[in-house]
Amino acid sequence: MIRYTMYIRKKSVLHSTDPRVKIILSLFLFTICIIFNDPLYIGSIFFSLLIFLRISGKIEIKKILSFLKPMLPFVIMIMLLWIILGSDKGNIIYQIWKLKIRDLNIKMAVAMGFRVLAMILSTFLLLMTTEQRDLVLALVKMKLPYEYGLTIAIALRYVPTLASLAVSITDAQKARGLELEKGNIIEKVKKYIPILVPLIVKSIKLAQELAIAIETRAFGKPNRTFYRDLKFKFRDIMFLFAAIVFFSLCIYLRIKGYGYLNI
């Protein structure tokens, strides 16, 4: 089954929060993941986000991890590159010929892995609890041109769509006898051609259907109006205040030298 959105309909505090507040919160979390590079701090942020989504968004941990699963090969590749090609600082704990594995590089690899996952999760926080129409409306209310807001929303919508489509095509090809796990790396790359070709063709068809749908809705006409409107509530203001306090605390800790490894 192809999912056209990551939005999960629930009745929760996070779902009812103004999308502008969630956009700001996601940007704060994204920035925090960048300024820290200590695996203890980044790991704490990642697990705190999981708990936060579970409690405030009522989204099951299993559901969140299912969205993170396709990203794991990318995260593992980043971690391996940090271990192999990282800094020459730190103590050598293992050596194979000229390849030296250092303790500091392992720490940085773990930190980078948690950083990527936490940054992805900070985006999921917004996408899982905000409908696309509310997301576009929030961006427009934040003075972003409607064309740009719609472009961002379309991009965010079709990431899970194409991911689900790729999984469906892969399963279909495996049912026809395609064995992706066997063979050397060159053979494995060639075996992905039967997956990439129909994926590209379907992507082009989706783009054509999207263009027709946009044109039938008078895209580009002036004086655009919205059926729904967004208004800040007292709870939204308190939520935003808590996010600002948390972000300021993280900035203060970083200025004081906490959560940072010299590499």
Please supply descriptive tags for the structure shown above:
263 residues; mainly alpha; 2 domains; 11 helices; 2 strands; flat
In short:
The chain is mainly alpha-helical.
Structure write-up:
This protein is mainly alpha-helical. It has two domains: 19-130 and 231-263, no CATH class; 132-230, no CATH class. Helices cover 69% and strands 3% of the residues. Helix 2 (19-35) runs parallel beside helix 11 (234-255), helix 7 runs antiparallel to helix 8 (146-175) and helix 8 packs antiparallel against helix 10 (193-216). The radius of gyration is 22 Å and the shape is flat.
Total count of helical runs of at least 4 residues: 11
Shape: flat
Unreliably modeled segments: none
Q: Widest sheet: strand order?
A: 1-2
What does the main sheet amount to?
A: 2 strands, antiparallel
Rounded to the nearest angstrom, the distance between the terminal CA atoms is 45 Å
Q: What class would the helix/strand composition place it in? A: mainly alpha
Please state roughly what percent of the residues sit in beta strands, choosing from under 5%, 5-15%, 15-25%, 25-35%, 35-45% or over 45%: under 5%
**What count of domains describes the coordinates?**
2
Question: Averaging pLDDT over every residue, what do you get?
Answer: 84
Number of strands: 2
Share of helix, binned = 55-70%
Radius of gyration, Cα only, in angstroms?
22 Å
Q: What is the H/E order?
A: HHHHHEEHHHHHH
